[in-house]
Specification:
Chain lengths: 228, 198
C-alpha cells in the first residue's frame, strides 16, 4: 500500500463516479429526455410559426437546460449518503475541497457537457438561427458548470432530508438566475449579430467564482448533513 | 502517547443524558469493547470519536493517529464489483495494489466474487467487502461499530483473530458489540457511565 497523491485520488474518484453513472444509463438519459420532451412541447404551445419559435428559442433552450440540471442536482450525493460512502469521504485524509470538486466535475460531464453537445440539435428544432448556435454551445458549456457547482450546494444541504426536492429548488433557484440571464443574453446577442463574448466572459467569471467558493459551501453542507 | 484521547465527553439526546464526563485514552495494543444497552449512545460515541459528529456534544477528542471507521452502513456501491469498491474507495486512505485487494477479498471469504457486481451479493457479503478494508488498511486505530452484524460464526472467529493480531502488532481496536469476544488478547471493557476501569 502506498499513500496516494491527492491528484491520483481525485482522478480515481472521478473515474468511480463516471463508471457509476455509465452503469446507470437511465440517470444520464433522463435529463436529456426531459430536455427533448419540453423542447418538443413548445412548438405545440406557442404555435409552429418559425419566426415566433426563433424569437423565443434562446430563452426556451436556456430555461429547459436549467430545469433539467435542477432535476439531476438532487442526486449528486444521495446514493453516497444512503450507503455510508459519504461518511468515509468526510473521514478521508484528502482535502475535501478537491474531492467535492471531483464529484461535481463528474456530474457536469454526464449532464451539462452532454446537454451542451446535443443542444445544437434542439436549437434547430426551435429554428434558432445558425449564428446563435456557437454562442448557445459556449454559454451552456460554461453556464452548466456553474449550475452543477451551485446545485451541489443545495444537494449537500438537503441530502439528509427524505424529501429535499422542493427545498433544493427554493435554495438554489435564486442563484441560478444570473446564469440564466447572461446565458440566454449571450445567445440573443449572437442571433442579432452583436458579440456574445462579453456575456460568455461574465459566465466565465461566474464559473471562476463558483469553482473557488462552491466546494467550500458544499463541504460544509455535507459535514452538517452527515452530522445531523 | 495514546492513539486517541477523549476528555470530559458529555452528550445529551432527546432530553436524555447519554453520558457525562467520559474520559479515556486508547493506547497501542488495546482492544476496547464498548458495552451498553440499545440506545445507550454507543454509536453516538463512535461517531464523536471518529470525528463525524462535530457539534452537539461537549468535551474534546484528541486524535494522534490515522483511523479507520466502519459504521452501520457498508459504504459498498451496488453497481461496482467488490474489487472496484476497494480500489476506488472514497476513504482516500491509500492505493491498494491488485494483489492486496485480491488477498483481502480472499481472506474475508469472497474468493470467486471479486468481479461480480455487488448488487448480486448478500447483505453479509456486503459487510464482508467493507471488512476487507481491515486487511488493506495501515491505520493503527480501528473504530468499528457493530462489526459482527450479518457475519456468520466462522467469519466472526476470523475477525476476532484479526483484531487480536492488530492489537498485538501495536494497533488498537475500539468496537461496539453485544457479544462476548472470544479472543486470546485482553479485552478492555468501556462503560459509558464509568469509562475504562483502572
Amino acid at each position: 500500500m502506498s499513500a496516494p497523491g491527492t491528484a491520483a485520488f481525485c482522478l480515481r474518484l472521478l473515474r468511480r463516479q463516471l463508471v457509476l453513472a455509465v452503469r446507470r444509463p437511465i440517470d444520464i438519459g433522463n435529463p436529456l429526455l426531459f430536455f427533448a420532451m419540453v423542447v418538443a412541447l413548445f412548438p405545440l404551445g406557442l404555435g409552429p410559426a418559425p419566426d415566433t419559435l426563433a424569437e423565443f428559442a434562446p430563452g426556451i433552450l436556456w430555461i429547459v437546460a436549467l430545469l433539467s440540471n435542477l432535476l439531476t442536482s438532487d442526486g449528486v450525493f444521495r446514493s453516497d449518503f444512503d450507503d455510508g460512502s459519504l461518511e468515509q469521504l468526510l473521514l478521508s485524509p484528502q482535502p475535501l475541497y478537491l474531492s467535492v470538486l471531483s464529484y461535481i466535475c463528474a456530474h457536469w460531464l454526464v449532464t451539462g457537457l452532454l446537454l451542451a453537445l446535443v443542444s445544437p440539435v434542439f436549437a434547430l428544432m426551435l429554428n434558432l438561427p445558425v449564428a446563435g448556435i456557437a454562442a448557445l454551445f459556449g454559454s451552456l458549456l460554461l453556464g452548466s458548470a456553474v449550475l452543477s457547482l451551485v446545485g451541489g450546494i443545495g444537494a449537500a444541504l438537503t441530502v439528509g432530508l427524505k424529501r429535499g426536492g422542493m427545498l433544493i429548488s427554493l435554495l438554489i433557484l435564486p442563484l441560478y438566475m444570473p446564469v440564466l440571464i447572461f446565458g440566454s443574453a449571450a445567445v440573443k446577442a449572437a442571433v442579432t449579430g452583436a458579440p456574445a463574448g462579453p456575456y460568455l466572459a461574465i459566465l466565465g467569471a461566474m464559473l471562476s467564482l463558483a469553482v473557488a467558493l462552491a466546494p467550500f459551501a458544499i463541504s460544509a453542507g455535507l459535514r452538517i448533513s452527515v452530522d445531523a | 502517547m495514546p492513539l486517541l484521547a477523549a476528555r470530559d465527553l458529555c452528550l445529551e439526546r432527546g432530553g436524555r443524558q447519554l453520558f457525562t464526563g467520559l474520559s479515556f485514552a486508547v493506547l497501542p495494543g488495546q482492544l476496547i469493547q464498548i458495552g451498553g444497552a440499545n440506545g445507550a449512545g454507543k454509536t453516538s460515541l463512535m461517531r464523536i470519536l471518529a470525528g463525524l459528529s462535530r457539534y452537539g456534544f461537549e468535551g474534546q477528542v484528541e486524535r494522534n493517529a490515522s483511523l479507520l471507521y466502519l459504521g452501520h452502513h457498508s459504504a459498498v456501491k451496488a453497481m461496482l464489483t467488490p474489487r472496484e469498491n476497494l480500489a476506488w474507495h472514497v476513504s482516500g486512505e491509500g492505493v491498494y495494489s491488485d494483489a492486496v485487494i485480491e488477498e483481502a477479498l480472499h481472506k474475508v471469504g469472497l474468493y470467486g466474487y471479486e468481479d461480480v457486481p455487488s448488487h448480486a451479493l448478500s447483505a453479509g457479503q456486503h459487510r464482508r467487502v467493507n471488512l476487507a478494508r481491515l486487511y488493506c488498511s495501515s491505520s493503527p486505530l480501528w473504530l468499528l461499530d457493530e462489526p459482527f452484524t450479518a457475519i456468520d460464526v466462522a467469519g466472526v472467529g476470523e475477525l476476532e483473530a484479526l483484531f487480536a493480531r492488530h492489537a498485538r502488532l501495536g494497533g488498537a481496536v475500539v468496537l461496539t458489540s453485544h457479544q462476548r469476544l472470544g479472543v486470546d488478547h485482553p479485552v478492555v471493557p468501556l462503560d459509558l457511565d464509568t469509562g475504562i476501569a483502572p
